[in-house]
Each structure stands twice: as structure tokens, then as C-alpha cells.
């Protein structure tokens, strides 16, 4: 089972970026956590990050026929991007939306998720552990 873990803008700055909201662990720590979980779950995980909306669209398109599931934190594009929604709908790959912070308790503009209608579940506010939960959920969903 091949999973794509896709991260949007500014997530490469984890650890440095607003640690009171996103924690002190770095992006490299996140990648290690994901690889550990992948080994435990017996799945393959490819981790990618981009600050560019079009590159994220390209990643989703290229995932077709390659990846069985996507763990997706679109970051700020969550709240703005019809293009990412359309890309997820186009490829139809089971996708779990992840947010490190609890977006439901933050600013009004974070209450909208454009990608949510194309996702099988959303995990928000569970810190970096949310990525691991999403991987577990996808494994369960894909082996059902
Ligand atoms: C985020 C929440 C978004 O609102 C924000 O723009 C991010 C990160 C999260 O993981 O909590 O960049 O997706």
C-alpha cells in the first residue's frame, strides 16, 4: 500500500513557525515520525511539501495510479483553493485532510475547508499525531 503524505505552504517551517500553535518539532521530525509509523503499519509513505498551489495540484495529478491514499494538509490553501478540491475529485484517491491545529477554534477564515468535500475524513487539532492517525485510518479504509 502506497501512501502520499502531502503538505502545503509553510509546513516546512514547523518548529520555527508559531510554536505555541504548531509545536516545537521540526518538519524533519515529522518526516521521521511518518516513516516510523509506515514501517509499523507495513505501508510505504512518500512525504512531499510545497509552498506552491500549482505544484500541489501537479502532485495530486501525478498520484493517480501510483498512490492508494493521500494524507493531505493543504495548510492555508485549505481555506482558498478550488483547484486543490478539483484535483482531488479528478483523481478520486481516498484522502484524509489533516490539520495540526484545531482550525475549528481559530479565526473565522479558517472555518471553511474547500478540500473537505473530497476527503473521507478530517483530523484536526491532534498535533503531528494527526498524520499518524490519518495513515492508520487510510490503511483500515483501504483494506476493508
Ligand atoms: C494548518 C491550519 C491552516 O489554517 C494554516 O493555514 C496552516 C496549517 C494546520 O495544520 O493546523 O498553515 O493546516
Automatic annotation (TrEMBL):
The protein's enzyme class: lyase
CDD domains named in the record: DHQase_II
Site feature (Transition state stabilizer) residues: 17
The protein's Enzyme Commission number: 4.2.1.10
GO molecular function annotation: 3-dehydroquinate dehydratase activity
Reaction(s) catalysed by this chain's protein: 3-dehydroquinate = 3-dehydroshikimate + H2O
UniProt: substrate binding residues: 73, 79, 86, 100-101, 110
List of catalytic residues: 22, 99
Spans traversing the lipid bilayer: none
Any one GO BP annotation for this protein: chorismate biosynthetic process
Keyword RNA-binding: no
Pathway the protein acts in: Metabolic intermediate biosynthesis; chorismate biosynthesis; chorismate from D-erythrose 4-phosphate and phosphoenolpyruvate: step 3/7
Gene3D superfamilies: Dehydroquinase, class II
InterPro entries: DHquinase_II (IPR001874), DHquinase_II_CS (IPR018509), DHquinase_II_sf (IPR036441)
Keywords: Amino-acid biosynthesis, Aromatic amino acid biosynthesis, Lyase
Subunit structure: Homododecamer.
Function: Catalyzes a trans-dehydration via an enolate intermediate.
Annotated family: Belongs to the type-II 3-dehydroquinase family.
UniProt xrefs under HAMAP family: AroQ
PANTHER family with a match to the protein in the record: CATABOLIC 3-DEHYDROQUINASE (PTHR21272:SF3)
Protein name, UniProt field: 3-dehydroquinate dehydratase
